[in-house]
């Protein structure tokens, strides 16, 4: 009897032929959070408060109380996060189909363009050029934009706020529309603080990576890192948000499985 795919996978993971890449930023009080202009309400940064540490408040145990907004650090955007996804009955962190938490990833490397232009916009032209080299983006894939933005360890440089709003790369509306309508992807992931470009408030529609993705029941991943360690195709992502009742998103651990013994 031939071994099941899963038993082969388990063996390959134990042998470290399959490597696990952590695409998650460390969650800490200095973790940058999205800045919105007044009168919009701000999100809370991450905070941690000691309960006890092997002391009189808890002689044999260490633990903390933590607090943060749902969209803090490396996090998942659920479809109900945006008004366009509000009526989906499987669009909250607790109602999403868990089958969709495991999916292949296509990584589009635009790090060179982003180094030259902080407001670089990914367009369908870039996606089609990527597909010419690496093949058509399979339905149900994560599409990740490698910008190397996660290498900006200074929070001010990461947020890159200017008079006219953040100077941060992202997709234009046509790119998002293409990924939703022509490729039917699982979701869109980026290294920046949010899935939309810094100037996306002025796009048509505003915030297309939110409005169009979530309106079509697609997910978002923000503040990813280590995308430079992923192949253009062939990585398998595990991205499961906390099961918050009616949650709009949550911080999460994002893991990529890669096969070092194969090209894809
Ligand atoms: C709220 C309002 C606007 C945006 C966002 C949140 C995010 O980027 C987010 O974290 O989902 S653009
Ligand atoms: Mn978010």
Produce a short descriptive summary.
It contains six helices and 15 strands.
Helix-strand sequence: HEEEEEHEHEHEEEHEHEEEE
In the predicted model, the low-confidence regions spanning at least 5 consecutive residues are: none
What is the CA-based Rg, rounded? 19 Å
Give the helix tally: 6
What is the residue-mean pLDDT, rounded to a whole number?
A: 98
Instruction: State the major sheet.
Output: 9 strands, mixed
List of distinct ligands in this structure: oxo(2-sulfanylphenyl)acetic acid, manganese (II) ion
* Proportion of helical residues: 10-25%
Strand order of the largest sheet: 1-15-13-5-7-11-12-4-14
Structural class: alpha/beta
Structure description:
- The protein has 264 residues and is an alpha/beta fold.
- Helix content is 19%, strand content 27%.
- It is built from 6 helices and 15 strands.
- The strands form 4 sheets. The chain has a 9-stranded mixed beta sheet with strand order 1-15-13-5-7-11-12-4-14, with helices on one face. The protein has a two-stranded antiparallel sheet with strand order 2-3. It has a two-stranded parallel ribbon with strand order 6-10.
- Strand 8 and strand 9 form a beta hairpin.
- Helix 5 runs parallel beside helix 6.
- The longest helix is centred in the middle third of the chain and has 11 residues.
- The protein is globular and about 65 Å long.
- The two termini are 26 Å apart.
- The mean pLDDT is 98.
- The structure holds oxo(2-sulfanylphenyl)acetic acid (23J) and manganese (II) ion.
- Oxo(2-sulfanylphenyl)acetic acid binds next to loops.
- Manganese (II) ion (MN) binds next to strand 4 and strand 12.
């Amino acid at each position: 009897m031939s071994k099941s795919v899963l038993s082969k996978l388990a063996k390959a993971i134990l042998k470290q032929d399959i490597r696990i890449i952590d695409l998650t930023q460390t969650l800490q009080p200095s973790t940058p959070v999205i800045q919105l202009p007044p009168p919009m309400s701000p999100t809370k940064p991450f905070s941690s408060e000691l309960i006890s540490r092997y002391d009189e408040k808890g002689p044999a145990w260490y633990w903390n109380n933590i607090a943060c907004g749902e969209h803090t650090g490396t996090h998942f955007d659920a479809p109900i996060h945006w008004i366009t996804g509000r009526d989906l009955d499987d669009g909250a962190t607790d109602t999403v189909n868990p089958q969709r938490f495991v999916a292949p990833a296509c990584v589009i490397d635009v790090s060179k363009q982003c180094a030259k232009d902080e407001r670089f916009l990914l367009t369908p032209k870039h996606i089609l050029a990527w597909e010419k080299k690496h093949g058509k983006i399979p339905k149900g894939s994560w599409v990740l934009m490698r910008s190397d933005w996660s290498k900006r360890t200074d929070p001010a440089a990461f947020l890159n706020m200017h008079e006219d709003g953040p100077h941060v790369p992202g997709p234009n509306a046509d790119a998002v529309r293409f990924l939703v309508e022509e490729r039917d992807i699982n979701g869109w992931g980026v290294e920046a603080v949010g899935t939309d470009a810094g100037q996306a408030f002025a796009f048509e529609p505003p915030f297309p990576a939110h409005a169009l993705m979530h309106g079509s029941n697609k997910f978002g991943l923000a503040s990813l890192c280590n995308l430079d360690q992923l192949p253009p195709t062939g990585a398998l992502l595990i991205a499961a948000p906390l099961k918050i009742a009616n949650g709009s998103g949550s911080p999460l651990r994002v893991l990529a499985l890669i096969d070092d013994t194969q090209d894809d």
